[in-house]
Amino acid sequence: MRFSHEMLRTLRCRIPTRIALAWILKAWILKLNLKLNWKLNWKLIGILNCVLKCILICVLICTSIACTKGFKPDDTCSPHVAQGEDLMDDQKWTEAERTLLQALEHCREVRQGGTYPSMTLATLYFRQRRFVDAVPYFESAIQSDPQLALAHVNLSASLLEAKRYDESIRGAQRALKILQGQPGSEASKGKLNYNIGLAIYDKFAEQQPRRVGQAEPYLKEASRLLPDFGGADFLLGTIAEIIHENTDLARSHFAKACERGDQIACSAKRRGSN
Questions:
Q1: Looking at the 3D structure of the chain, how many domains does it have?
Q2: What are the tens digits of pLDDT across the range 71-80?
Q3: CA-based nearest residue to 239, from 218, 260, 263, 259
Q4: Residue 272, Cα to own-chain centre: how many angstroms?
Q5: Rounded Cα distance, 185 and 176, in Å
Q6: Is residue 252 part of a domain?
Q7: Residue 160: how many CA atoms within 13 Å on its side-chain side?
């Protein structure tokens, strides 16, 4: 969970707060001077005063920099997007959507922001489970930065949830090729493989169950790349139980999924052992 930008801004950015901080530090300096006057010579006191005043100046400069949240002075796009992101974190969905749509329009006009505006708006829709709405904005983010792993993962998941299985599979397969060799992308590759496997399973499970076996290579790769995730092993167990009618293999997959925290798999494991 991220710190609330609004909370941080309240503490560091409001002008009265910064002025109050300056006065507190100044009062502390004066108090220290009074104590030191009785013990130290005037030359040393002068040096200490200079040091403390430099600290005060540095604090004020740092708070000014912090208020920009790291944005460049000529960046008029990112602060608008960040405002919408704050509202999203507070689950003020309607206000967040309105703010982010306005921010996106502004960012396009000034040609700033890169993937930040579209990715943030897509994330808003994704968190609301408005998957169809999220798709074009994830696609826009990927168009701006084809190496953006999270956008690929969430795009394939959105298409999957929207039951657009073929598009989800093709998009995830394309993403795996793009991310091939990218350091630190194992988790994203694991999720993409899982999305492909789940899309194949959901597409064929009812009408053509024998074709569900096509999902197995992807689910096995997902299991390998995601050691803390039991979803792929649970699906492998389901395929083994229903399609291959191999109870022992199914029990093995369910046990592995259970070890990885999948509670449904734990129930299936117990059922299989009876």
A1: 1
A2: 455 678 889 8
A3: 218
A4: 37
A5: 10
A6: yes
A7: 23
